[in-house]
Structures are given as C-alpha cells and as structure tokens.
Amino acid sequence: MTYAELIRDLWARGHAQGMRLGLDRVEEAHVRLGRPARSWPAVHVAGTNGKGSVAHVAARLLEAHGLRVGLTTSPHLHRLAERMLVDGVEPSADELTAAADGLRARLGGWPPPALTFFESVTLLAFELFRRRAIDVAVVEVGLGGRLDATRLCRPVVSAVVSVGLDHVELLGGTTAEVAAEKAGILVPGVPVLLGPLDREARRVVAARAAALGCPLLAWNPEAGRFEAAEEVHRAWERKVAVPPPVAPLPGAHQHANAALATAAARLALEALDRPPDPARLVPTPFVLPGRLEPIPGRPPVLLDVAHNPAAAAALAAHLAASGTRPRYVLGVLARKDLGGIVAALGACGGPLHACAPALPDARPPAELAAAWHGPVAGCHAAVTEALAAARAAAGPGETVVVTGSHFTVAEARAELLGIADVDRPVAL
C-alpha cells in the first residue's frame, strides 16, 4: 500500500458512509488487534467546544514531564497525520502506511471492512501509539462520547470541557440531551473534570458521575478554582488546588480550558506515580492552528474554526475585547446553525465575503449573504477567491477574519502560508 492509496481509500470510505455512531463494529476490530488502546493510560476529553485546545495543552504539560505522549484529535486542517501526534510530531507518510498495512493484515482489509472513516482512523492512531510504546495518551472525543470510537481507550481522568448545541440531529436538541452523550465517556471510579457547563448539563453529568462513583470536580469561573460536587470528594480539590495558569492561547474562553488541561495533566501524572512538578505545569504560549491564529501582513488575517453559535460568540467576544475591526470571510457547512453563527458574529459588525469550502455539503454563499445582518461585500465560489477579495478590500485598521468551519480555515491557511502538502478534506 502506498500513502496515496491509504488516503484515497480512507476518503472514499468517509464519503460513502458518513457519520455512523456505534461501538459494536469498532470494539470487535479492537479485540482482534489485541486491544492496543488498553495498553496505556489516557486523558479522555469531550466537549462541544474547546476540547481540542484542552487536549493540546494537556499533552504539552505531560511531555514537559518527560513522558512519551500520544495525542489524537480531529478533524485535521491539512494532513491526516495531524490527528495522531507523538511528542508533538506528526508521523511520516511511511510510518502511517506501515501501520495501516499492519491493520489490513490483521483485519482483512484497509480500511477495515464495515468500519467508518473515523473508526478506521482511530484504530490507526492507536496502532501507531502501540508501535511507538507511548507512556500516556491524550484522546479527544470525535463526536458526542457515549458511542464514540475513542471510548476504546483506558482513561485515568475524563474531562467534559463544554456542552452546547451542535450535531443536534445526532446528539439531541437540548444541553441536557447533549450532556448525557458527553457523559457517556465516564468510567467507574475515574475522576471527572467539568468546564463551565450550564445548570442542566452539569446536573446530568454529575448524576452520571455519582452513579459510577467518579470523583467530580467542576470549574467555578467566579471563584477561579475546581470544586468537588460531593463532600466525600473534597480531598480531590486539594489535588488540583493550584492558582489557575495564564492561558497559553488567546481568548478569554481559554482561561477555563487552561485550568482544565492543567488539572487533567496533574491527575494523570498522579495516576502514573509521577510527581507533578509545579514549574512544568505552567503552560507556555504557543500557536494552535486555526484557534484565533494570527497571520501577520497587510491586512492582518485572523483564522478561527468557530463553527457553531457558542464558538462564534467566543470569537466575537475576543474581537470586541481586542478592539479588532473585522472583515469576515465566512464559509459554513449545511448541517450547522447558520442563524446562530451569524447572530453571534454580527455583534461586532463588519462586511461579509461569503464563500463555500470545497465540500459537497457546504452552504451556498448566497444563503450566507441572505442571513447576514450587515453589509455584504460579495459572494464567492471559493474560499481563496473570497480571501483575495477581502484582503484587497480591507481598509486601514481592518482585520480579515476567516471563520465558520475547519474547512474554510484550512483552505485559507494553506493559501496564506503556501502549504502544498495537503490531503483532501473529509468533514468527519
């Protein structure tokens, strides 16, 4: 198998099957592989928004303690290898191909018969981690939690970063319903960290934690600390009772994410009998592609993958707090809440360049323009066309803000940074 064949066949599977929740198929394949995901402990991270940021920060903190760390996230922006890092480095095409060949030999084909794109990629990541003999993994949930393929891992700490409305056709139309799906990652006795959830979502996760005997620590943004849900678990407060770190990523919403990541790393280190070093539990600033990522130039460009109303509101809050005057390049997928995204972004004003990422389920630019409440500068057939028009039209003091989807950001980022090594996108 060549790398080109690996990508071709994965992409074909993704477009043929789409999203399909369920554990029976992938659990059976995992057993046939000897359960590689059970051979190392994991930090398991779920959430509507912010879970990728938490996962990346937690992985960096564990690496700083001298551990070999596997990190699996989704989706990727440019290359499949972004989804499965070891010590922050992407595997080579040859290494991925060798791992996939191993799966094909043991599972009767590649991608494994009957498995979805995401299930196949999850097994590929776990096989890569087995080959690299990692010490610990940080595993970001793909979708929901209860029926997500990442549940194959063996968590020593679970985190639910946020609960909002996204993928409502699969996860439910209320935060309580979505929270029940996220809480599906909880494992008996394993400590749980909660981000700033609303009351109903927190109640659902807390009830699940209590039923499973999981110590639960919830972030209190007003107090700036984690608080135990039950008196019997007060000792766990002391385990994470450190001043909240300065967020290593921009945006006010990243303060809670940094606290969650730091607490998760501390609990994972204790589970591994590795004394946490306070000096190494302070995350240092870094750039996470597509998360309020600045691209210097004239005009400056800001890339953010906000693709639901809550994420768009966080982006808008950052723009307002930083005094940014936006000129938007917006591309949104059909299954997303366009009205909610537009309402959130509209709080900052700014002209719109509507576009569509190169995916079959992208919304037509005219739909975006019709929903926009401010001035529409143009409808463009492609992201790169919209980006060029926005950069040309930007006035003094304006920032071109590219947002609405991972895939809109990916196309713009590749154009801006001259990234030619790009795998075809799959919206999974």
Features:
six-stranded mixed β-sheet; 14% strand; UDP-N-acetylmuramoyl-L-alanine:D-glutamate ligase; eight-stranded mixed β-sheet; Protein-Tyrosine Phosphatase, Chain A
Question: In summary, what is this structure?
Answer:
The protein is of the alpha/beta class and 428 residues long. Helix content is 40%, strand content 14%. A hairpin with a 4-residue loop joins strand 7 and strand 8 (225-228).
Structure description:
- With 428 residues, this protein is of the alpha/beta class.
- The chain has two domains: 3-281, UDP-N-acetylmuramoyl-L-alanine:D-glutamate ligase (3-Layer(aba) Sandwich), CATH 3.40.1190; 293-417, Mur ligase, C-terminal domain (Protein-Tyrosine Phosphatase, Chain A), CATH 3.90.190.20.
- It is 40% helix and 14% strand.
- The protein has 15 helices and 14 strands.
- The chain has helices at residues 3-17, 24-32, 51-64, 93-107, 117-132, 168-171, 175-182, 199-212, 234-239, 254-271, 309-322, 338-345, 365-371, 383-393, 406-417; strands at residues 41-46, 69-72, 84-86, 136-140, 154-160, 192-194, 216-220, 225-228, 293-295, 301-303, 325-330, 352-354, 376-379, 398-403.
- The strands form two sheets. The protein has an eight-stranded mixed β-sheet with strand order 3-2-4-1-5-6-7-8, with helices on both faces.
- Helix 3 (51-64) packs across helix 10 (254-271) and helix 7 runs parallel beside helix 8.
- The radius of gyration is 21 Å and the shape is globular.
